[in-house]
Write a structure and sequence with these properties.
By secondary structure, the chain is mainly β. The protein folds into 2 domains: about 160 residues, Single-stranded right-handed beta-helix, Pectin lyase-like (Pectate Lyase C-like, 3 Solenoid); about 190 residues, Pectate Lyase C-like (3 Solenoid). Helices cover about 5% and strands about 45% of the residues. The strands form 4 sheets. The chain has an 18-stranded mixed beta sheet that branches. Strand 1 and strand 2 form a beta hairpin. The longest helix has 8 residues. It is globular and about 60 Å long. This is Pectin lyase-like superfamily protein. Belongs to the glycosyl hydrolase 28 family. InterPro entries: GH28_Enzymes, Glyco_hydro_28, PbH1, Pectin_lyas_fold, Pectin_lyase_fold/virulence. Its main location: secreted. Keywords: Cell wall, Glycosidase, Hydrolase, Lyase, Secreted.
Length: about 375
């Protein structure tokens, strides 16, 4: 451990080699530096991933009732933390956890590879993260977070191994990352049903750019489905998504409440993505019986432009929710190449505008308003 004396900070240098550890907590004003060839291995002893309280915006573990396993690298209430290196590796050795899930013997929700809570001024960069038990990088209730130059890998059938999930967090920049996983590459979240509504801690001012990768079951960029605290001011640009179930996906449901507003998605290249643009609903996925079926989300101001998708198998599917507001959807310069001539857009409970979109979108997105904010944006 190197200390900086009067500067008030410390740095932990991890040298080349393989280092087995259970969960450990970080502290403020602290740098973790993994040298080239350094590998942190997550313990295979489940007791070394202790149970902690559920997040207040979720009310319970995301997968199971009660608490949840702590992440391998964890921190709460921190400031000025750097996790970086010379492309060193953190390997969660998640197979043990995935098998608990597959065998239906999981007792508590799996831990993340890295979770920081209630923290600010965070940099995560220049590392490889492998085989997370659950979501890989999870900043929750955080602000001023930069995640860049990361390689995140998990087997493509590994369950719920999202790459990066900013959750009820603000001022987040995710850039120059490569991700292969069994779930969304990047998913923006903000709490689950009545617990997220009560906490009302939105995710806002988030940039995702120059991210590439593949996920055969999920999406390149996902908004939700846990979005009950609200999501706004999201800018996504310069993504390359291949061999995936969906490219851009907005996920919500009855009971979520909350809002999704002012989302800009620009310059996305897709190859062999099954459904390039998808709004989905109706997963019937709730924390407990206390959810309110009358709490419906509001979605307004979704700008999607300069999208090229090659060899998709289905046209976009935009399914809003009955009695909810899904409006102000703007599509410009969207080209889907290789679809069957019989493939048509499917839209319900949505409205908006389009220009330069091929094949022609559904009537709900063909409102004649050439002077609208969509045409001029």
């Amino acid at each position: 451990m190197q200390r900086f004396g009067d500067k008030g900070g410390s740095q932990l240098n991890i040298p080349k080699g393989r280092w087995l550890t259970g969960s450990f907590n970080l502290t403020s004003n602290f740098t973790v530096f993994l040298e080239q060839g350094a590998v942190i291995l997550g313990s295979q002893d489940i007791k070394e991933w202790p149970i902690i309280e559920p997040l207040p915006s979720y009310g319970r573990g995301r997968e199971r009732l009660g608490g949840r396993h702590i992440s391998l690298i964890h921190g709460n209430g921190l400031h000025n933390v750097i996790i970086t290196g010379q492309n060193g590796t953190v390997d969660g050795q998640g197979k043990m956890w995935w098998e608990l899930w597959w065998n239906r013997t999981l007792v508590h929700t799996r831990g993340h590879l890295l979770e920081l809570m209630n923290s600010e001024n965070i940099l995560i960069s220049n590392l490889t993260f492998l085989n997370s038990p659950f979501w890989t990088i999870h900043p929750v209730y955080c602000s001023n977070v930069v995640i860049k130059g990361m390689t995140i890998l998990a087997p493509l059938n590994a369950p719920n191994t999202d790459g990066i999930d900013p959750d009820s967090s603000s001022n987040v920049c995710i850039e120059d990352c490569y991700i292969e996983s069994g779930d969304d590459l990047v998913a923006v979240k903000s709490g689950w049903d009545q617990y997220g509504i009560t906490m009302a801690r939105p995710s806002t001012n988030i940039i995702v750019r120059r991210v590439s990768g593949t996920t055969p079951t999920c999406s390149g960029i996902g908004i939700g489905s846990e979005m009950s605290g609200g999501i706004s001011n999201i800018k996504v640009e310069n993504l390359h998504i291949r061999d995936s179930a969906a490219g851009v996906r907005i996920k919500s449901d009855n009971g979520r409440g909350g809002y999704i507003a002012n989302v800009s998605i620009n310059n996305i290249r897709m190859e062999r993505v099954k459904i390039p643009i998808r709004f989905s609903r109706g997963s019937n996925d709730h924390p407990d019986e206390g959810w309110d079926p009358k709490a419906v989300p509001k979605v307004k101001g979704i700008y999607v432009s300069h999208i090229v998708s090659v060899n998709s198998t289905k046209a976009p599917v935009l399914q809003g929710i009955e009695n909810a507001t899904f409006e102000g959807i703007c599509l410009k310069n969207v080209t889907l190449v290789g679809l069957s001539p019989s493939a048509t857009w499917k839209c319900e409970y949505v409205s908006g505008f389009s220009r330069g979109v091929f094949p022609v979108p559904c009537p709900q997105l063909q409102q004649n308003d050439t002077a609208s904010w969509c045409s001029s944006s």
